[in-house]
């Protein structure tokens, strides 16, 4: 099945989830060609859940010996996080070739928007770890709506909030249905807590230190007492903060290797901005869907 897309082209449904053509090509190629290593680390999200932020934090955690965060030459100061931590399906596999991974140091750090059902078997069957970042559906939708309108050519015009809302509620959004995507990984995190860490955008915003520590521990790179004393955790949080990343020249001007404007990934970075756009009825409608989808699973977003 296909749907006239949010962006420009149609979205295609594969294994119950909606993809752009480019993304679907990448999913299929990854399924066919990707060979996971036991030490690989995956950052998984639905679009606009805070992927950029998670990539920055994970990159900074893993590379802090090579690149101390108080150093003027830190890669995050000169490259967009999406160029440092590539999407498996959006960059590496779209051309249907086995990409060159020789530049990837171990543990290899990747990201993906793929739903759990579509992950390559070699990932599912390996011991590699997955961090899943979830954001509440209201803010995710508003962020996605803004992002989509930034990417749409002026000649096509904007998608209205009403249309975006209707599609999102029906599950027709990039990598949607949003709720099914979240729930699949939530279930995996309950079944295999040593392999899948489930994190919420709102929780990191509220207690950044607690969650950066949790993330570092799960990834196998816990902070030492010495590092805590030296303020390394704060340095990483500062470097990866919305204010810091969004004000860097590279993120205000440049383009990703995949072509999108770097600045499109930074808008407000707040919790609850959806309240400025959605009517009380829209919010209630979304809340009812969320409740119905998540009932019995112990998941609140
Ligand atoms: P808003 O549109 O609500 O501002 P993704 O990275 O998955 O594409 O998600 C983008 C959303 O994350 C945007 O949300 C963006 O502003 C926000 N974001 C980007 N960098 C962030 C950071 N360092 N801290 C918090 N939020 C961030």
Into how many domains do the coordinates divide?
1
Strand order of the largest sheet: 5-4-6-7
Q: What's the mean pLDDT score?
A: 93
Q: Largest sheet, if any?
A: 4 strands, parallel
CATH fold-type name: Rossmann fold
CATH superfamily: P-loop containing nucleotide triphosphate hydrolases
GO molecular function: sulfotransferase activity
EC number: 2.8.2.-
Family: Belongs to the sulfotransferase 1 family.
Protein name: Sulfotransferase
For this entry, give a set of tags.
301 residues; 15 helices; 4-stranded parallel beta sheet; alpha/beta; binds adenosine-3'-5'-diphosphate; Rossmann fold
Describe this structure as you would to a colleague:
With 301 residues, the protein is of the alpha/beta class. It contains 15 helices and seven strands. The protein has a single domain (2-294), classed as P-loop containing nucleotide triphosphate hydrolases (Rossmann fold), CATH 3.40.50.300. Helices cover 45% and strands 10% of the residues. The protein has a four-stranded parallel β-sheet, sandwiched between helices. A three-stranded antiparallel β-sheet has the order 1-2-3. The longest helix is centred in the middle third of the chain and has 15 residues, at 137-151. Adenosine-3'-5'-diphosphate binds at residues 45, 47-53, 139, 143, 146, 240-242, 245, 265-269, 273.
């Amino acid at each position: 099945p296909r749907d006239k897309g949010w962006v420009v082209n149609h979205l295609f449904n594969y294994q119950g989830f909606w993809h752009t053509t480019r993304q679907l090509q990448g999913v299929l190629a990854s399924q066919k060609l990707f060979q996971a290593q036991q030490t690989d680390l995956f950052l998984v999200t639905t679009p606009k859940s805070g992927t950029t932020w998670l990539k920055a934090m994970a990159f900074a955690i893993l590379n802090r010996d090579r690149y101390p965060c108080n150093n003027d030459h830190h890669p995050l100061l000169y490259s967009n996080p999406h160029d440092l931590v590539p999407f498996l399906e959006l960059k590496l596999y779209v051309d249907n070739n086995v990409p060159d991974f020789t530049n990837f140091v171990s543990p290899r750090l990747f990201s993906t928007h793929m739903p759990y059902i579509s992950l390559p078997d070699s990932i599912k069957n390996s011991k590699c770890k997955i961090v899943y970042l979830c954001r509440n559906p209201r803010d995710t939708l508003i962020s996605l709506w803004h992002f989509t309108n930034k990417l749409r050519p002026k000649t096509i015009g904007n998608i209205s909030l009403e249309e975006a809302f209707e599609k999102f509620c029906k599950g027709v959004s990039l990598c949607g249905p949003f709720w099914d995507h979240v729930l699949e990984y939530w279930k995996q995190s309950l079944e295999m807590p040593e392999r899948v860490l489930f994190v919420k955008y709102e929780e990191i915003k509220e207690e950044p230190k607690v969650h950066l520590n949790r993330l570092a521990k799960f990834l196998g790179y816990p902070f030492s007492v010495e590092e805590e004393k030296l303020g390394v955790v704060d340095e990483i949080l500062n470097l990866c903060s919305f204010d810091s990343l969004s004000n860097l020249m590279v993120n205000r001007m440049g383009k990703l290797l995949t072509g999108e404007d770097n600045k499109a990934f930074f808008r407000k970075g707040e919790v609850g901005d959806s309240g400025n756009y959605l009517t009380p009825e829209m919010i209630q409608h979304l809340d009812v869907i969320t409740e119905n989808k998540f009932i019995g699973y112990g998941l609140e977003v």
